[in-house]
Amino acid sequence: SEASITPADCDTIETEAGVALDLVNRHRRDGYVFGLFRVVDAYKQYIENSSVLYLTLDVLETECPILSGRYWEFCEYSDAYSQASKSIQAEPCVFGQCKIVTYTSQWIKKTQKLYGFNCTVSPVPSDVLECEDCPVKIEVLEVTEQHKDIAAKALEKYNSESNHTSHFNVDKVEKILK
């Protein structure tokens, strides 16, 4: 039988959208945890004792690395400008949009399952974040092999000077700031 797709109220769907975003973050392996900025669009499709939720969410990158496993609600958002020092411009924030499809079965404890997602994000252009009073600018650089070597040497030094019985190794360099 044909199942109808009906618009969902974006204000009341926020809890389910937050759960869906946590499911997306758990499937990602690179970058930083996405936080929910707002629900742009939401549709539900009811099929017998199940429902499919189609979401379009505006997201912002948080300060939590994706490998931390933290939920987006417990992560802070990057500021457009540093609060610690008004004379230094902070790194640009990253924003974007995620299209997410989840599946919920009423028979299996109403657990929301991720069916699929596609997120497109980009940094806020630096000309939008111009800070005339900032004598020092910070820019994000592309990660190179040289940066990976520098990180590995720094961690090697830390390992040799620490009293830890286990040693650390560089898995991946996420971001380079200049």
From TrEMBL:
One of its GO terms (cellular component) is blood microparticle. Pfam families: Cystatin. One of its GO terms (molecular function) is zinc ion binding. InterPro entries: Cystatin_dom (IPR000010), Cystatin_sf (IPR046350), Kininogen_Fetuin_HRG (IPR050735). One of its GO terms (biological process) is regulation of platelet activation. Keywords: Blood coagulation, Copper, Disulfide bond, Fibrinolysis, Glycoprotein, Hemostasis, Heparin-binding, Repeat, Secreted, Signal, Zinc. It comes from the Eukaryota. It is found in: Secreted. Residues 17-82 form the Cystatin domain. This is Histidine-rich glycoprotein. It comes from Eudromia elegans (Elegant crested-tinamou). The lineage of its organism: Eukaryota, Metazoa, Chordata, Craniata, Vertebrata.
